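haha ok so turns out i had the wrong file open the whole time. this is the CORRECT one, sorry everyone. sequence first:
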Amino acid sequence: MEVLQALARATTREGARREPPAPSRVLELNTGLSPEEVEEKGEEEAWGEVWVGEAATRIPINLPYNLHFPFRRGDVHLHPGVGGSLSSVLLDLQAIWSDALQRELGLGLTDLGHYRAVLVIPALYNRGLVKHLVSLLLTTIGFGGCFVVQDHVAATFGAGLASACVVDVGDQKTSVSCVEDGVSLPSSRIQLGYGGSDITQLLYYMSRQPPGKLGSPTRGAPRRPALGTHSCYTTSRRRGAAWTWTRGA
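then structure:
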């Protein structure tokens, strides 16, 4: 009744008076409806068992989840903690790749036998790990075929170049190699264990003034503003034979 009285006192956008339905009509409609029972789910059930990608970084820290990063510094992230074994990393990759194939590409896992996969590996790679990744794609996930190519070679093919010096500044590693006629020269391959995320860490630290102890923004929320600053206000320019990083306008 209070709602109907409030509607009667309100006016429309054109200034006309609202005509709420009669109370008897409202009572008649409500009488013919049965309540719907909604099953209450706990916070853990609402989140589910496995989340991948950006959604994983939004899980509340008070919930008992383990946050796994299969790759770190350009290599598989093996450690003595939970999820740090090679078999656990392969299971995480299976969940991530399967989710991406279904949610991002709209492919059914039962139809992957009709598709071929291209596995892009680093310039400096571990043959044993490549063997496990190929087995994961062909045997576990179910692709009909797989082709392996190094990332720097793929970059030159994509740019339409036969020869190039490739400098890959990634999130957590920087790699350099020279590619000639589709072959990455082994003597020129270099990989450094730092990249764009270290710039983000530095910007995050500088934004906390006065200077204090730097927290590790692994959950994503404190990291996003610094990541945006890193992406929008830094750029690379060639000066002579060297590349320099400058702050944008």
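Residues 2-30 form one domain.
again sry for the mixup
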